[in-house]
Specification:
Elements: H1 2-7, H2 10-61, H3 63-74, H4 83-97, E1 121-123, E2 128-131, E3 136-145, H5 150-162, E4 167-175, E5 184-194, E6 221-222, E7 226-227, E8 231-233, E9 235-240, E10 250-255, E11 260-269, E12 273-282, E13 286-292, E14 297-305, E15 308-319, E16 327-337, E17 343-352
Length: 356
Amino acid sequence: MFKWWAKVSPREQRLAALTAILVGISFGYLGFTQAMDRIGTMDATIDSLEENLVYYTEQMELLDEVDRAYEVVAAEHSSEWTQEEIHDRLRREIARLSLQNMPPPGEKVSLSGGGRRLVDIREMPQGSLSVSEAGYREYQITIRTQPTSIENITKFLERLHRSPQALRIATLELTRPPNNRSVTARINVIRTVIDTEKAGPAPMAAEPEKNWILNSGFEDWHDQDTPNHWTLDRATAAIDMGTVTEGKRGVLVTAAEAGATFYQTVELSGGEELALEFALQSSEPVQVRAYDEGSGTYVGDAVTLEPASSVQQYRLRVKVPGPSGAPVAIRAPVFVINNAGGEIALDNVTLNHSGA
């Protein structure tokens, strides 16, 4: 090698050295780009794993809510029930939902009266049962109501939707005489019964020390336009990610009309005092209230929150109306937007006994 190097001219030596340097640079650059690509791939993998970790952590935080909701529904299903038992349980559930002061799920309710009614059921005949190979049965029944206000019918339909017996409304017919504001409803209700051995009395919807609000962080949505377990009245909702205080999502509520409301209905015990906390940003004053579904009236004084250009944390106290220990269906909280076009961004709503 050295003899060959000594024989070549200086010009050839420089050319050979330059070629070796260029080859070395090329291999070095190739190694550098491969290393950078590898690092970029690893960074992307790390980011993906971090997102998965955050997502699964959030799902674990929601596990208690999911377990409670599942236990309430599972307690209302059994593969051992006959058609007559399903019919009897459904009739008693409809009777419970029709009461003005609705008792908690699982409580025995008289079919012949016993309390003021939100709607009076005029007819509740025997229904029909169909069996699916997918592991569930469907019991279908048609009920008719006595004439009542459209507001009472609407509230009754909402209760049917929230029932732990997994009810759904197949058809709804409303009739009204020309000279009367009362309406009569003909409702075709389908109850789905999942084949399971877990049957028994339904537990309470939530533990006293837990958060009573379901989907409190607005992570769970129905068709991207309504957060599950929440109700919109004269308002629209959209997923909001700009003012999130926990999790990945919040909610942006826009009033379509003056007096729009956004609320969740919970079943509490009368006389309790609870702490309501939430993060909110608003474009105008917003009222926070509580509404007793039994009496059909707002309870307590309205709290008015002034407009805020950034997210603010609020803590309020809620006193549950009614006799001590009596079950009360109450809308709490109710956010009232007084002007059409007003907006609120909301996240992380909690209602519990902590510090109350």
